[in-house]
Amino acid sequence: MSSLSALENVHAKGQFGDSEGKDDKNLLSISETTNLLIVQIVQYKSSNSSLDNMQVDGLNLRDNPSLVNFNDNTRILWNGPRNWILVSKKKDILNEIEQKFNDNEFAITDISHSKAIIEIEGKEAKEVLKKGCPFNFGELEKNQSLNSTYNGMSVTIDMLNDDPDKYRIFGLRSFGESLYHSITDASLEFGYIAK
Amino acid sequence: MLHIKCPHCGIRSQNEFSYGGDATVKRPELNKEVTDQEWDNFVYNRVSPRGKHLELWQHLSGCRQWIKVERDTATHEIFNTYKANEEIA
Fold first, then answer.
1. Domains of chain B by range and CATH?
2. At A90, which CATH number?
3. Alpha helices per DSSP H over chain B
4. What is the pTM of this model?
5. Buried b (16+ CB within 10 A) or exposed e, B10-48
6. Do A134 and B12 touch (CB under 8 A)?
7. Is B73 on the interface with A (CB under 8 A)?
8. Which residues pair with A16 in a beta bridge?
9. Which end of chain B is more exposed for a tag (fewer CB within 10 A), N or C?
């Protein structure tokens, strides 16, 4: 059995939009990211466990809004009070999480297959996001994340880099194709390369 | 469009929130005998005040938390927001 990515039917490689006569380096780049482990970690209200000693892949869970704790392989996004989304290239981390976090105090859910992930990179990337998302992107910095909506669809946006801007956008897999259409449609005026 | 200050996330657009009704309604105490009128008041009957009103909103597309919002129903001015479990003097 082969697995199909969330954007298998819509993501076509090539150059689109107003890209004629522009240097490829200055164009937006849009790609689909697959093969990431995505785990939601929720600490129950009744839990009294201190988070200070709880580490995953050497990273702490911090209850600070918008903060992303990260290393080369793993990023832990704040998703709400006592609620985090862990995104990692290392799939075997799931075992580590299940061993470290007690069932009676934490809910661990593997949501790797329920998300569509779009990465957008380029100096106009922020403008593309502004077109569909009501968040004030002027205050978003590198290694911060947020939950919001893009054209009415719930999304999580993680800012990976700021030189040039690079964002990872997580949407529900069921909305993946609509989200991809919205993002690429908003990118047409700048011209983009789908990788 | 309103901008609502979520006590967890900060100022966000109303688009991210969902209205959840009157936050002043109190559920009758558990196991207490209640009259039909008291139950009706809890389940159905609502006042529709003009002016300051305490409302429940959920930050549905943000941190998913329920919050209380003190809003003027006539001008839409928002005076304060609170966490759902916060006691308000």
1. 3-83 (3.30.2270.10)
2. 3.30.70.1520
3. 36-43
4. 0.93
5. eebbebbbeebeebeeeeeeeeeeeeeeeeeeeeeeeee
6. yes
7. no
8. A192
9. C
